[in-house]
Amino acid sequence: MSKNKKDNIPENEAAEEKVTETAKENAEEAKDPCKELKEELDRTKDQLLRTMAEYDNYRKRSQREKEAAYSDSKADVISEILPVLDNFERAAMNEDAPDEDYKKGIKMIFQQFDNVLKKLGVEPFGEKGDEFDPNMHNAVMHIEDEELPENTVAQVFAKGYKIGDKVVRHATVQVAN
Description:
By secondary structure, the protein is α+β, with helices and mostly antiparallel strands. The protein has 2 helices and 6 strands. Strands 1-4-5 form a 3-stranded antiparallel sheet. Strand 4 and strand 5 (166-169) form a beta hairpin. Helix 1 (2-93) runs antiparallel to helix 2 (99-119). The longest helix is centred in the N-terminal third of the chain and has 92 residues, at 2-93. It is elongated, with a radius of gyration of 43 Å.
């Protein structure tokens, strides 16, 4: 029996080694999912950081483009108005012109300025006899006038201007009650 006991010892050691190896393999396999999850988390974090950086760059680029568009539109409007200013300057420097010629020149400059506004899509509004609209008109005076219907513009102190549906300046008017 002693021989069997000795023979069993190596078998027990071999069995223990197999159990130990199996335990190590199971431990490594248990570590692998954690390792895989950590790698996936790192990839997700990296992707999120890249997305945040791209969004920040997009936001900054959009802001720069917006500022550039605003600046360009101002420059476009000013370039349209400058010829009118040049004609006013010429008229002011021509002091020796007869009154009729001077008036004619001023009317031509006014027409040129009106054409610039039309080209830019600016429409004037606010005429005597129009129905008063508080969204379009700024009433600074009220009068009693039996010849005009109620809530009618009796007098225009300053025309209003709009671009499309947007009011640039309200018409300053007197309203009949």
